[in-house]
């Protein structure tokens, strides 16, 4: 109910602002909706949205897989932590735009370059979160698994992974929010399709209704994925933790 009220209030403010500044600068909700329907009817909206979601899925999966493995290694092995920490600091502070531009220069304007650039921007946050989670592991539980001679994989599955689950969930949520932003920049600079590409075209043509149509559709999809996938996963990962009174 509160979400519906918030959405209604947003539409009301938008409509009033459109009336005050004029449709040339800020088109009204019906004008933007008309463009959405036209783009959806032609199939272009779903084509570009699908391309963007595919890039997000590939880059996110790649970054989370590598980041979790590297973060766990750095949390467990001091030598790996000392060797990797300077590079981790560098990646954390390197602007996303620099990574994307360098990827396109070195690998060309290819799909692989775009996905790699997006993944590299997400990678350090995943490493940091999983490294801290690994450092926080209860060593007494490791000793218990050793005493009961649990196989390594079984110990990892039943002892280590449940402790890391909240950190994996936190890394996934923060990382996905980062990937949503970076993928649009990568598409704007070097891809022939996707929501970012369409936003770039709309900017060049000063087509504000089209720009808002693609931006709001993208935002709506992000909200749906956050509500239906990310939040339930995070709640499940933290289900064993005691709730605050």
UniProtKB/TrEMBL annotation:
Instruction: Return the InterPro entries for the record.
Output: MetI-like, MetI-like_sf
Q: Which residues cross the membrane?
A: 56-75, 87-106, 211-233
Q: Name one Pfam family in it.
A: BPD_transp_1
CDD domains reported for this sequence: TM_PBP2
> Transport: present as a keyword of the record?
yes
Its family remark reads:
Belongs to the binding-protein-dependent transport system permease family.
Q: Which GO terms describe its biological process?
A: transmembrane transport
Protein name, per record: ABC transporter permease
* A single GO cellular-component term on record: plasma membrane
Q: Transmembrane: is it a keyword of this entry?
A: yes
- From which lineage does this chain's organism come? Bacteria, Pseudomonadati, Pseudomonadota, Alphaproteobacteria, Hyphomicrobiales
For membrane topology, the record states: Multi-pass membrane protein
UniProt keywords, alphabetically:
Cell membrane, Membrane, Transmembrane, Transmembrane helix, Transport
- The UniProt record lists the ABC transmembrane type-1 domain at 49-229
Compartments where found: Cell membrane
